[in-house]
Design brief:
The protein is α+β, with helices and mostly antiparallel strands. It has a single domain (about 1-150), classed as Aminopeptidase (3-Layer(aba) Sandwich). Helix content is about 20%, strand content about 25%. It contains two helices and six strands, in the order E-H-E-E-E-H-E-E. It has helices spanning about 35-55, 115-125, and strands spanning about 1-5, 60-65, 65-75, 95-105, 135-140, 145-150. Strands 1-2-3-4-5-6 form a six-stranded mixed β-sheet, with helices on one face. About 20% of the residues are buried.
Length: about 150
């Protein structure tokens, strides 16, 4: 059974790699790969602090038997500048955007945990009044971009 924990600036260190050091959605244009992990984490915490104050919780981790296996990050699209780099048209201002839903542990993939995570997240967002959820799927490569709308 999966357990879920909301992440804040106070327990951000529980976010697994590579997610803790990823600013893909919080940036726009070319990625800056030269930044140290410490600098990236500092920027991630700065972003999280802003989003927590205005949107509320936006990151959760999923654990199985005490081991973190999954990561979810979501908020309004306006908090993710990278969205503008995708050519699907503007996202709804009233829709939640799932920036990341990721099974970190490769041995735990294809076991239905991603589905459980998505169902839990959709239920939570529905409870917060969202009528639509939008996301982009990046499968295996940044160059393979598909848009998917989830109702």
């Amino acid at each position: 059974m999966l357990n879920f924990e909301k992440v804040s600036i106070h327990n951000f260190s529980k976010v697994p790699e590579p997610c803790r050091f990823c600013l893909y959605w919080q940036t726009k244009g070319e990625l800056q790969n030269a930044a140290s992990k410490k600098d990236v984490e500092k920027e991630e915490l700065k972003w999280l602090s802003i989003v927590e104050k205005t949107f509320g919780n936006c990151i959760e981790i999923a654990s199985l038997n005490g081991t973190t296996i999954g990561f979810m990050q979501y908020a309004l699209a306006k908090y993710f500048p990278r969205v503008e780099d995708y050519f699907s048209g503007p996202l709804g201002e009233d829709a939640a955007f799932i920036a990341c839903l990721y099974i970190v542990d490769k041995d735990q993939r294809r076991r239905g945990y991603g589905t459980v995570m998505l169902e839990k997240l959709l239920k939570e967002l529905s409870g917060r009044g969202f009528k639509a959820v939008e996301t982009f799927a990046r499968m295996g490569s940044e160059n393979k971009k598909t848009t998917r709308l989830i109702h």
